[in-house]
Every structure is written in C-alpha cells, then in structure tokens.
Amino acid sequence: MMNRRRFMGALVGGGTLLASGVAPGREFTAGQHYRRLVPRVDTGLPEGRVQVVEVFWYGCPHCYNFEPLVREWREDLPDHVDFTHVPATFDDLWALHARVYYAAEELGVLDQIHRAFFDAIHAQGRHMRSESAILRFVDQRGLDADAFREAMRSPEVGAAVSEAGLLVQAFQVEGVPTMVVDGRAMVSAGMTGSHEGMLRVVDHLLEEYA
What pLDDT, on a 0 to 100 scale, did the predictor assign at position 210? Predict the structure, then answer.
C-alpha cells in the first residue's frame, strides 16, 4: 500500500506487498482485515444498492498492479452493486492526476485514458508531472487535447476533485489502493496482506451488506 509519506520512494524504487495473503474461506475480523467506518459515509444510493469504491492514484505502482485484478473482478459483481473509482488527492501531483480522471470521465473517454495513463507512467516511465506532459499524452492517444485541457480546468472537474478529497477524508484513507464498501468499511492490502486478499474481504463484506 502506498501512503502519502512513502509514495515518492515507492515511485522510484517500486516496492512489494506482503507475500502472505488472506486465505480463501478464512473468517474476516473487523479491526484486523477491515476497518468499520463510524459514522457511515452516505453513498447517496437508493435502498437495496451497495457501493464499492476503489481509492487510487495513477502514480502508485500498487494501484497499477491492482488495476487488472479489479477490472476482472468487477465483471462478476451482482447487479445491485455499483463500482466506482475515487482518485486520492494527497498533494498537488495527486490532485493533478485526479483532474485527468475526472476530465476523461466528463468527456466520455475514461475507457481510452484510464489504463493507458497508468501504462504511460509505469511501463513507459512518463511521470506526468505537468499539464503539458498530460496533454501530449492525450494528443498521442488521438484525442482532442484542447478539449481535454478545458475539461481539466473546468469548474465541474475542480468540484469533483474537491469532493474526492472530502470523500477520501471521510473514508479515513491513509494509503492506496484502498477499497470502501457501502460507506461502512474500508479494506487495504496492509490489512489483508495481498491484493487478492483485499478482494476476498470485499466479497465477504458484500455478502454481509446484501
């Protein structure tokens, strides 16, 4: 897991998660494998629907490795479960990358940007520390860089980034990736020992909150 103090060191040096994961079928305990959120964070969803949030940062190598697992896992989610991402905004660079996420969402090109932006940073070594670097990336993807710049600077995207920061605080997130289930519980790899363990605990919580 990457926290706000360790993210630069991990960006340079990589880093590994604990080798021992949560074993399938193991009982999961609040305070050990997940943390209950008190008070509960309102999801804004109607009764009968359950929200799962992944809090992430594009520059986090653990989030990069977690992304394909989450993408595959979410394909089998029940119809009553709503999955969404929330980009963490722990500093100015994280907030800049959050603008990328919400601008792509605003323009309807998130599917073309999300994994590719991860790849640009982690597979191609492009850390995307400036708007100009981001817009070059967007242009190279065959998208309208001028429209993307306008979206990144728009009040709507600015408001979304601010709301994301408030949500991350309410979720009591200290590092990424973190998953939050129904506004009631948060799960991190530091608690479960592995990315796969995170998903097993989330599955358990979805059954509990169904």
Answer: 86
Residue of 167, 176, 188 whose CA lies nearest to 35? 188
Closest CA to 186 of 37, 2, 8: 37
Average pLDDT of span 202-208: 96
| Tokens at 180, concatenated | 């939050």
Half-sphere exposure of 75 (CA within 13 A, CB side): 6
Rounded CA-CA distance 190/152 in Å is 32
User: Using CA of residue 67, residue 72, residue 73, residue 78, what is the dihedral sign?
Assistant: positive
Q: And the tokens for 157?
A: 């995207």
Residue 71: CB atoms within 10 A of its CB come to 11
Cα 43 to Cα 17, 23, 85, 107: the distances in Å are: 30, 30, 13, 24
User: Could you please report the per-residue DSSP string of 147-160?
Assistant: HHHHHHHSHHHHHH
Q: Are 174 and 20 in contact (CB under 8 A)?
A: no
Could you give the percent of the chain with pLDDT greater than 70?
A: 89
Rg of the chain, C-alpha, whole Å: 17
Q: Which residues pair with 52 in a beta bridge?
A: 83, 181
Q: Are 108 and 77 in contact (CB under 8 A)?
A: no
Which CATH fold topology does 24-209 show? Glutaredoxin (3.40.30)
